[in-house]
Amino acid sequence: MFALARYWADAGCFIGQPxxxxxxxxxxxPLTFFRSLGPEPWxxxxxxxxxxxxxxxxxxxxxxxxxxxQYQVLxxxxxxxxxxxxxxxxxxxxxxxxxxxVRFVEDNWEAPTLGAxxxxxxxxxxxxxxxQFTYFQQMGGVELDVLPVEITYGLERITAYVQGxxxxxxxxxxxxxxxxxIVRRExxxxxxxxxxxxxxxxxxxxxxxxxxxxxxxxAEGLYFASYDHVLHCSHLFNVLxxxxxxxxxxxxxxxxxxxxxxxxxxxxxxxxxxxxxxxLQGRVAAWS
Amino acid sequence: xxxxxxxxxxxxxxxTIAPAAAEFAQGLRTAAEAADLIEAGARTLVYxxxxxxxxxxxxxxxxxxxxxxxxxxxxxxxAYDQQGAFTKAALGFARGQxxxxxxxxxxxxxxxxxxxARREVPGxxxxxxxxxxVLDVTRVLHFPRTMRWAKDAPRLPRPLAWLLxxxxxxxxxxxxxxxxxxxxxxxxxxxxPGPMEVQxxxxxxxVLRKGFxxxxxxxxxxxxxxxxxxxxxxxxxVAEMSEAxxxxxxxxxxxxxxxxxxxxxxxxxxxxPVLVATMVxxxxxxxxxxxEGRLAARFxxxxxxxxxxxxxxGNETVLAARLADALFFYxxxxxxxxxxxxxxxxxxxxxxxxGSLYDRTERLSRLAPALGRAAGRDELAAVLERAGxxxxxxxxxxxxxxxxxxxxxxxxxxxxxxxxxxxxxxxxAARVRPRGGDDELPPDDPGRLLALADRLDQLVGFLALGxxxxxxxxxxxxxRAAIGALRLWETLPDLxxxxxxxAAAEGYLDLLGQDAAxxxxxxxxxxxxxxxxxxxxxxxxxRIVQAVLASGIEYPSEVMPRIAALEQAAQGETWTRLVxxxxxxxxxxxxxxxxxxxxxxxxxxxxxxxLEEEGGLLLARRxxxxxxxxxxxxxxxxxxxxxxxMVMAEDPEVRGRRQALLHRAHRALSQVAEIAALSAxx
Lengths: 288, 682
Fold this sequence. Notes:
By secondary structure, chain A is α+β, with helices and mostly antiparallel strands. Chain A contains eight helices and eleven strands. In chain B, the strands form five sheets. Chain B has a five-stranded antiparallel β-sheet with strand order 2-3-1-7-8, with helices on one face.
């Protein structure tokens, strides 16, 4: 993580921090979601804890986690040498492409709840998928004219690979201390909660409440505030789905409701930036 | 002259590389031909790797022939005024053609005298034509999925990274979006980083091969094939090489190097299909077998660079993790009884309004034996009922959740472990086949009947809800299901459509009521449309196929033989008579009673009855051509009938009787196809 941060800071990225609302992926952090929109250039890198209730495995699966960590990089506009930049970042964490077999295998990305999709790859190092690499095409339902590229590293897997262990819980975080010592109970509890104990009635009510609040905040033009509630909706939906409380027919409807919220926030952001004359254009020499 | 154009990309999706390269080369060639710029017999070469689509067009002429263009202008009357001066019309025409009015020439034509402009048109250069073609052809290349990557640039599957375009060594003046043509290419990303110059098309292969790229796709493919085969053979093993995997691996690397890897022998406890799926689908490894056909605890993979020992170790680690998962799931799955978990299917919806997966197994357990009975296989009832009940239990297993492509296969494995009869386990495994157009059919009748039940249940359910596919959208996979059903049906000649669809609809009566009862009327034309598409893809004439389908598809397996017979009959000498007989009979045919015939009518009735009987025997033997020949013999009796009697008699009773007789004749003639719809010249 330190090495990645140093590398991307040298590439002109703002080193951001995780956003303190629960979410399923680093893309949902406002530093990516909002800043992908509009013509303003942007470069950011940060760690994002990502909660995926459906991937929870009671702390028993060597690779699957309720909460995993992504290292997220967003470069906009996409630099021409972006693949070489990326390979440089791998070398910085000890995965030199001269020694390892690095492949870019087609994998297009889509986040229906965000109204977002892109074209790209999963990156394999010696047969292991360690990165999702995406040229965004749409975000918050808005077509993107200035092409942002997102690079998302799966931190647990990379660390396990670099340390040569097969189980992410066996990663040594401090000599004598393993990752499993810290998170196994948490993984177990969230799995048990998501799959077995979550009160679906309460969650559905909360979903409706958050949805209404997102709309109300948006009506006041408060897009950051509104978006927080959209994120909350998204997480509640993920728990409800893991809990098996959402029939396939309802699924589409829930997704559409979350997407509507994301779209409202995106549109408000764009209006605001436009009114300000897209002030980041031409500001940072390293981004042009 | 020689043109080389290479579009450079970051890694393209593997499946798109070969077709796009071929289309690109063909497009450039066609443009050169259309401009009459290419010598006959000149070669066009195609190169393709994950990072480049390249075409070489040889035998280009430097420029087109100059030509003379003559354009007709105004008539002489309209061209001069009374003073003999040019009119406005003539002056305007000359200006429009870019010639002096005095240079216009007078020509006599059959329509009278006109002024003509005669212009020398200099030939365009190859440079000019091909530069435009590069952009035009790129713009219309077909890819399954494209992206916007630069303003005012054509959509492409990945951002264009470089454009190499040389005509006899000179850079072609063209740009695609922000990327201008040059003489630079890039070879292997890691093994030979940085730009490389190409002097002319002739250098291309050498430059790239020095840079660790094999641009000739078919050569790269055979390299992969040979390397994998030899690596396996060096250990006395045989590589399992499917076409699909070989193609994909070829397009995932530019400089293939095969290597062998191991996994722990304890993983061989995992059933073969799981090992193969894990290696092939997830890792793109080639599984290895002993000469006796047993899977070895080894694999062969292809790398595109890196240090072999490091890459091997990494790949082994990844495979080990996946196999550990698989073995774990395999053991977990066996902790619960396979059949006892069936009630849990109640918690999984099949589709809105179509009940749960449990409901579906109930339907399949009734429908499969019903189909068996209708196909004359009563004795399979018990096996099919049990297989139907357990057919979806593997959806509850961890292995199938992890590796969905193993659905069915694992059902068979776990059913056998759970002590089910062999025939039941085999049928469960066979239910999912054929998965696609070319996939193998189930090996035996129980499997085919269960697989057919599965597809009919799907078709009836979704079509009862009106969810027919539209255009390219087929979200419930109904077209594939229909094609699968028809392929399965070819192995079940005695199974009638009416019985089968009624039985499938019955399963939905509780859930869908009237919609279910009406569903067969939606499924029948849907299947007919698939038959039509299949027959046309196979190159059969649309009208012949339509005529066959119009006479019914009650026994779907007969449709293709009927089409073949009809095509053959249409070449025969009795064809004209057959068509005329059918048409004449059809024209006046009305259903009714043939009671109380007169002599002429009685003769025809006798001949029609004879055709019904003898034709029926021929049809029962599926001798469709024989039937068609026999049917043509009705021409003469019909002819005699029309000569002897007036069909449209005044007495309504007589008229009705004669029309009814013709109706029967028409029916007897139309058992293989609606012949009256065809023309005698077919």
